[in-house]
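User: Hi! Is it possible to get a structure for several chains at once, not just one? Here's what I have:
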Amino acid sequence: MNAPLTSPLAGGFADPARDAAHAFRAVLDAMARPGRIHAVSGGAAPGLSAAAATVLLTLTDATTALHLAGALDNDALRRWIAFHTGAPLAAAADAGFALGRWPDLQPVTRFRIGEPAFPDRSATLIVEVERLEPDGPRLTGPGIRDTARLSLPETAAFRANRALFPLGFDIILTCGDRLAALPRSTIVEDC
Amino acid sequence: MSQTEATARRRDWMSLLARAPAARLAALAPDLPTHELLRAPEIGAVMLEGRIGGTGSRFNLGEMTVTRCSVRLGDAVGHACVQGRDRDHARRAAVLDALLQGEQAGRIEARVIAPLRAEAQARRGARAEKAAATRVEFFTMMRGEDQ
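Assistant: Yes, the chains can be modeled jointly so their relative placement is included. Here is the combined structure:
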């Protein structure tokens, strides 16, 4: 899953402008088309999937507070983030981005969901999952022609999040070198 | 050597490497050992801050173009942030910073850092002399107000 790092600080983009543009396009398209799985590459961080490392390199910088949940809140990753992105680490309630495995991110109600006047002041959760396949719960809503399916870790939390719309958090699921997104607008149903 | 002493020493050589003329640095250290780029040389800007009167409150003096680079050499990680847009300069300074943390520190210190320090001091001295030669001392002679 992880390419071996030659050094704790290795794993940045080889060509930052180009690699970040490609990864940004992939994240943008994943958010616009919930359930669609994209492959990304370029980043590698200690203990993270390539996709999660690439998302961090692309979306975080010194102005985006990041929360590390559970086992990912370790020294090696903190150093890597400080060197490559400079993102300040923050508590869950203050974070613009949160990174962790789904069980470690619980309860997800502690993350920012924005304010009625500024729904964009919400958190984006980057969730490391064991498997990411187009099966499981049914997704409908903006950006999905009929229905899509995505192997989500659960459904209740996403239904509750959808009920908050236009507030709520957005999710990026990462696994290996692939990612998919679940914006707050998507309706999730068990089936 | 204590931690602060080591930091001060490293700060000193990093500063010398960053301020040295790029061509002079290339002449002193023409061959670089194989290294891994952690952060390829990249050009950006930093905001320079000054203090009013040297000690007062802070103000933004202006932006300066800098090039930064980080490399790995064995276990040592070298960083550099140099003025201007010279990628080779940044890379060479970063590699030398890594070398100075390793076993070859003594050799590099003698071959590169010592000459650079001497030249920097000579430059500063020449500038101070030139300025001192044109200094005008103002002093007030009796103005006749007290009478």
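Chain A touches chain B through nine residues (CB under 8 Å). The helical segments of chain A are 16-32, 50-59, 75-84, 102-105, 156-163.

User: Great, thank you!
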